[in-house]
Design a protein that fits this description.
Order of helices and strands of chain A: HHHHHHHHHHH
Oligomer: heterotrimer
Strand order of the largest sheet of chain C: 6-7-8-3-9-10-12-11
Mean pLDDT of chain C: 86
Low-confidence stretches of chain A: none
CATH class of the largest domain in chain C: Alpha Beta
Structural class of chain C: alpha/beta
Helix content of chain C: 25-40%
Largest sheet of chain A: none
Number of helices of chain C: 10
CATH topology of chain A: MetI-like fold
Helix content of chain A: 55-70%
Strand content of chain C: 15-25%
Number of strands of chain C: 12
Number of domains of chain A: 1
Radius of gyration of chain C: 21 Å
Distance between the termini of chain A: 44 Å
């Protein structure tokens, strides 16, 4: 069967140089895992805003706040009680005449400390426990998992309450109390990841090149779990802050004259009828922290989720 | 399946054992004792010690304590002279249970609807809205929400009573407060699960069979998405228990939570520890039931795989 | 539409909008499916073959799929223009599909029998009892022993090969006119692979279904297909009967494919020639022949214009500038056409 051909310029049929590189060019610029995640994260406006707000809150609480305000969180001035927000006292004063602006940010600092300390416990105990359990596998894993199963059965807030009854309330003790059983979730996740990674080929490859156990864990397995760890942290910190607030609310948390967001809210709730601003202001900061951690954590999770990659 | 149940049972008992032991040792570690009132003469103190068995060696006390707890005897309240802790707890149980269960049921229903809607209308306004509502719900703690509801719905609008517990309508605000978190958690969970299921191959296959959109959703998506929902049962239980502490305080509801907070205030250690054990039992039971239910609902666990 | 054809795809163009831009997965694909035949669509990952298959059944994800043009003619209708309800009447009884991974193709919480009867009840209006009986028959037909017990079991109680048989049973339940099998054996062991292919062939003869077989494995094509269409970067570059195409391929890409298959009977002095490079970026596809960047015979015109199709016989066509009379004469490498 004949096909009709168009008349074409003969020079077009000269051999062309193939650009060898062109053929090897992999479609699309090579994007590393983290860069890809960052690109995806940037698309999530909610998460970005949350991150910005969080950074802002941290900045104000730890740096800017103390620099700007001239008041101390403890100084009482009974002549200035119960003032609403004014130009001198930006957040007003409480029943002892203390400046609420300073108190709220001091409280935020305390709450953040506790959240971070509890998160640290999470990492140290949880990650190590989970990594050991997952990596070693076998009997060790079995035993360690039993441990977790049992610990899981103990409600962590109850443990925290009990702990606070025994210890004297203080930032460290509260953090320990909250972190006591909170790490089990992190341990579970890390273990799961270890098991996943162990089976993957790059582990095998690394091993066959002579990598020892420790090196394997440290250089390969943990970095690959970082994503999960970070995401989990984004949820542990607010959970810890929440737990502390709760403890304060029932009287087992931070004691006067120290303040935490929880104790401030608790005090504020009692004054709701006549001085609602004492409740609203710390609540606002608290909720803001919660929302932002949660949103950012969600966004981070979506961004790092390998299934979403095309 | 039997093995599964048996294992869960063992873990449950082990956890209970540990918790009760821990509470025992804590009670011994607590500063002071109920009879440190200096006005008591040494002789009377000795008598009281004997009466409460506080003079016996530690391991004996431990054994007795464990035995008692196993039988449901949590000792007597130090504050309410001679009243048994278990009795006090059980007396207040109906109120707390009512508010809690109402909150859970309401929250489950609304949460599921919200989650399903969000998943089905993914990436539209409704989805975003649902997600926002859900995030707010988990971010605003009970102790902020309760006073707010009290203020707006109770005082300003006067729709509901804000304190005490005389009839059903008194339970509305407390249950509503608790249900917000439930709604948010369930909605988020349901949405995530549904989205995950909708992306699975077998859903595409179901569509390839020519099953209608609605049919696919009802017969395949929902069933698969709801199975993991059982796993929120335990965390929700803990939330309700813990939440009740706050809610009952704020709404002055005579429930177990309020009693607990009171006992912390007056250092009624027997009450504190007894209630703690009670809460733990509830939670552990919820976990156990959840595990069992999961085993029943998910055919992959219920029916052992018998491959060729 | 030609009477010999049961399906005609004309100039199909499908893209996806993603966060990385628009990906043109299928860029003008045209082919026919004759009644009763098995047509294999072959290509690398990313060549657009799966998308083509899903497009026939309109199963691509609605949210980001854009059909940029073309027609899919089935009977009197253009499938691309039908509404969802009408498509639902076609999926199952007229056109059915088998997917690649049997481990995820079945609903884990529904008994296998019910997954079959679901289709029977909806499309054939069978009663519960009739449908159950038919389900058992179907399971037997696809070679599952103890069909009566098995029909009440869950997918996790079946092995991979068995599950794929179930999927085939589901697909053929309503005796469709067309069966699209998207890499049906890729996820299976080689021995099971053979069994499944045999089964497909057997059933095809029994029921008279026309089959579109998507695969990247030329061995599979050789054993079951009548005709073959080779796809690259969203376009069909060569098509013909299996015999013609395997013995007398006319396009460098096809040469490359055939030369890179290790043959157990080949003499050891024959080198395996992999095709260097990788497929182009479909969010920015090249002008001209997409294979130009990897083609050892590339000419200047190859990068500027997509070649016209040259017809070699009733069925055999290829798109390559080498067949233009002005092009230099080129012999396919010795490794190609092993039985020459």
């Amino acid at each position: 069967m004949e096909t009709r051909y168009r008349e074409l310029d003969p020079s077009l049929f000269e051999s062309a140089d193939i650009d060898a590189y062109e053929g090897e060019r992999i479609a699309g610029p090579p994007v590393g895992f983290w860069r890809d995640a960052w690109i995806r994260l940037k698309k999530n406006r909610g998460a970005l805003v949350s991150l910005a707000v969080l950074v802002l809150v941290f900045a104000v609480a730890f740096v800017i706040g103390p620099l700007i305000s001239s008041h101390s969180p403890y100084a009482q001035d009974l002549s200035q009680r119960y003032l609403g927000p004014t130009s001198k006292f930006w957040f007003g004063t409480d029943k002892f005449g203390r400046d609420m602006w300073t108190r709220v940010w001091a409280g935020t600092r305390v709450s953040l400390y506790i959240g971070l300390l509890a998160a640290l416990m999470d990492i140290f105990v949880g990650v190590v426990y989970g990594a050991v359990s997952g990596f070693l596998g076998g009997r060790v894993d079995d035993v360690l998992q039993r441990g977790i199963e049992i610990l899981n059965g103990i409600p962590y807030l109850v443990v925290a309450i009990l702990a606070m009854i025994v210890f004297d309330p203080g930032i460290i003790t509260i953090s320990i109390a909250i972190g006591l059983t909170g790490w089990t979730y992190m341990a579970r996740i890390v273990r799961g990841r270890m098991l996943q990674l162990k089976d993957q080929e790059f582990t095998l490859a690394s091993r066959s090149l002579g990598a020892s156990g420790f090196r394997l864990v440290w250089k390969h397995l943990i970095p690959n779990s970082l994503g999960l760890i970070v995401i989990n942290l984004m949820f542990t910190i607010p959970a810890a802050i929440f737990a502390e607030a709760f403890l304060s609310f029932i009287g087992l948390g931070i004691q006067v004259p120290e303040a935490s967001l929880g104790s401030l809210i608790s005090d504020g709730a009692a004054e709701l009828r006549f001085h609602p601003y004492l409740l609203w202001l710390p609540s606002l900061v608290f909720c803001l922290l919660m929302i932002c951690f949660n949103l950012f954590g969600d966004g981070l999770r979506d961004a790092l989720d390998p299934k979403m990659r095309k | 399946m039997i093995r599964y149940v048996a294992r869960r049972l063992v873990y449950m008992l082990a956890a209970l054992f540990i918790i009760v032991s821990v509470t025992f040792f804590i009670s011994k570690a607590l500063p002071g004792n109920p009879f440190s009132n200096p006005k008591l003469s040494p002789q009377i103190r000795e008598q009281l010690f004997e009466k409460y068995g506080l003079d016996e060696p530690l391991y004996v006390q431990y054994a007795k304590y464990m035995a008692n707890v196993a039988q449901g005897d949590l000792g007597n309240s130090y504050y309410f002279e001679g009243r048994s802790v278990s009795q006090l707890i059980l007396q207040r149980l109906p109120v707390s249970a009512f508010i809690g269960i109402q909150a859970v049921i309401f929250g489950l229903v609304i949460g599921m609807v919200l989650g399903i809607v969000a998943a089905l209308w993914h990436n539209t306004v409704w989805d975003t809205l649902a997600v926002v509502v859900a995030i707010l719900g988990v971010s605003v703690p009970t102790f902020v929400l309760a006073p707010m509801l009290q203020y707006w719905l109770g005082l300003k609008l006067g729709w509901f009573p804000i304190a005490f517990f005389e009839s059903w309508i008194y339970s509305v605000l407390p249950s509503l407060t608790l249900s917000v978190f439930v709604i948010s958690t369930v909605a988020r969970f349901m949405r995530t699960e549904m989205l995950e299921v909708m992306g699975q191959d077998y859903i595409t296959l179901a569509k390839a069979k020519g099953i209608s959109g609605l049919g696919v959703i009802v017969k395949h998506v929902l069933r698969n998405a709801m199975i993991p929902l059982v796993t929120v049962l335990a965390p929700l239980t803990i939330y309700i228990i813990v939440g009740s502490l706050v809610v009952e305080q704020i709404f002055a509801v005579p429930g177990i939570g309020e009693q607990f907070v009171q006992s912390v205030f007056v250092n009624d250690y027997a009450m504190i520890l007894g209630t703690t054990i009670f809460f733990s039992v509830l939670f552990i039971l919820a976990l156990f039931i959840q595990d069992i239910m999961y085993g029943i609902i998910d055919p992959r666990i219920r029916v052992a795989g018998a491959k060729e | 539409m030609n009477d010999d054809n049961i399906l005609e795809v004309r100039d199909l163009q499908v893209s996806f909008s993603t966060y990385a831009g628009e990906i043109q997965a299928v860029r003008s694909v045209t082919f026919d499916l004759r009644r009763g035949e098995t047509l294999a669509i072959v290509g690398e990952s990313g060549s657009g073959k799966s998308v083509t298959a899903k497009s026939i059944m309109r199963l691509n994800p609605e949210a980001n799929t854009i059909v940029r043009g073309g027609e899919i003619l089935f009977g009197q209708e253009d499938l691309l223009k039908l509404g969802e309800k009408q498509m639902q009447d076609i999926r199952g009884p007229k056109i059915a599909m088998v997917f690649q991974d049997p481990m995820t193709s079945l609903d884990p919480t529904m008994k296998v029998g019910r997954q079959i009867t679901e289709s029977l009840k909806k499309h054939l209006g069978m009663s519960g009892r009739e449908a159950s009986r038919r389900a058992v028959e179907l399971l037997r037909l696809v070679g599952i022993p103890n069909a009566e017990q098995r029909v009440k079991q869950y997918p996790h109680q079946f092995s991979g090969g068995m599950r794929q048989r179930v999927v085939i049973a589901i697909a053929l339940a309503c005796e469709p006119q067309i069966l699209i099998a998207d890499e049906p054996t890729t996820a299976l062991d080689v021995t099971i692979q053979a069994q499944i292919l045999d089964l497909l062939r057997e059933l095809q003869e029994k029921i008279g279904t026309s089959v579109i077989l998507i695969t990247h494995d030329l061995g599979v094509v050789a054993s079951v297909a009548d005709r073959i269409a080779v796809m690259y970067a969203g376009k069909i570059v060569e098509t013909g009967t299996v015999r013609e195409t395997f013995y007398d391929p006319q396009m460098p890409y096809t040469w490359g494919l055939l030369a890179s298959i290790p043959l157990p009977t080949a003499d050891r002095s024959r080198d395996l020639i992999p095709i260097p490079g990788s497929p182009p970026d479909m969010s920015d596809p090249p002008e001209g022949c997409p294979f130009a960047a990897r083609c050892p015979y590339v000419m200047r015109i190859c990068s500027t214009e997509f070649p016209e199709y040259t017809t070699f016989s009733a069925e055999h066509k290829a798109a390559c500038w080498l067949h233009h009379p002005m092009a230099p004469n080129v012999e396919p490498p010795a490794q190609v056409g092993g039985a020459r």
